[in-house]
Write a structure and sequence with these properties.
Two copies of one chain form a homodimer. With 140 residues, chain A is mainly alpha-helical. Chain A is built from six helices and three strands; from the N terminus they run αβααββααα. The longest helix of chain A has 17 residues, at 91-107. Chain B binds a DNA duplex (30 and 30 nucleotides) through residues 3, 10-11, 13-14, 23, 25-28, 42-44, 56-60, 62-64, 66-67, 78, 81-83.
Chain lengths: 140, 140
DNA sequence: TGCCTGAAACTACAAGTGTAGTCGGAAAAC
DNA sequence: GTTTTCCGACTACACTTGTAGTTTCAGGCA
């Protein structure tokens, strides 16, 4: 049990101004997701969890875990010569960061056009629509 | 299955499942955006349009234009030894692709949680909220 | 006619990513 | 106590991306 010095500089890109979190790549996100859903997990448990979703070789997944550790978004504990990994950053926090980044990059930060765009393209059930309207109401 | 090699052509990455459109990088997106806002434009006109938004050197922007051409998302016409560039793909189409990709990657394709997440984090004016509710109504 | 200029083409290069393979050493099995 | 087996550590390598610099060549200018 060690590691996890938040607030480092190298490996942090321009976009993360203010935020302390390095960018997480697509493949890394996938790995991190399984840790969010349940942690701690050993590397092999992560591999197993991803077996249905990807066809990555175990080494690939271990590399990704290592990179996540290096980015300080995942920590680990050694027990009996085997590592157990766990997230160091909350899912909510990361979602927010991804949200903002996407919104900025694709819609120049304009929320409503983005929402409109999604509402036009994707499908929702009647209940979901009701729930969203309720959510919008509560925001006034 | 997230990532299988699904017949990927060179210069086309995993995300372009099925679609023929290559991934557009962040910087490329910026360039493409100015072409969406007005086209055709010469390289220098694009450079000028981006001068306020970025501090990229002209060569950088020309490289990005060239890459967009190579990815078949931008075309050009030569007139009097100068190229005029224009988009070959519609903004709407690209937005849809980005939307879907983001939704899939970050929210596993679940639209409502994504919307909820945005609504929780970001701010909207009263009118925007009204407009969104109207949009939700029209969707039944 | 030869030179300068400006545009496109070509080259560069480090960091990050996807995607593993190989090495070295401890622990388990004989 | 050797051998085998795992596991993490280290190495690999091509492709993409950000971010330009350098070369070349046609056309205009002197």
């Amino acid at each position: 049990m060690l590691n996890a010095e938040r607030g480092k500089e190298p490996g942090m890109n321009n976009r993360s101004k203010g935020s302390k979190v390095s960018r997480i790549s697509e493949a890394e996100w996938e790995v991190l997701s399984v840790l969010w859903s349940k942690a701690p997990r050993t590397a092999n448990e992560v591999v197993e969890a991803l077996a249905d979703l990807t066809d990555w070789k175990p080494n690939t997944i271990k590399t990704l875990l290592t990179r996540l550790v290096k980015k300080n978004v995942v920590g680990f504990r050694e027990e009996k010569r085997v590592y157990s990994y766990f997230p160091l950053v909350g899912r909510e926090e990361c979602l927010r960061a991804e949200n903002r980044f996407f919104l900025e990059r694709v819609y120049g930060g304009a929320l409503k056009p983005m929402l409109v765009s999604f509402l036009k393209d994707e499908t929702l059930t009647a209940e979901e629509i009701e729930e969203l309207k309720r959510l919008l109401d509560r925001r006034d």
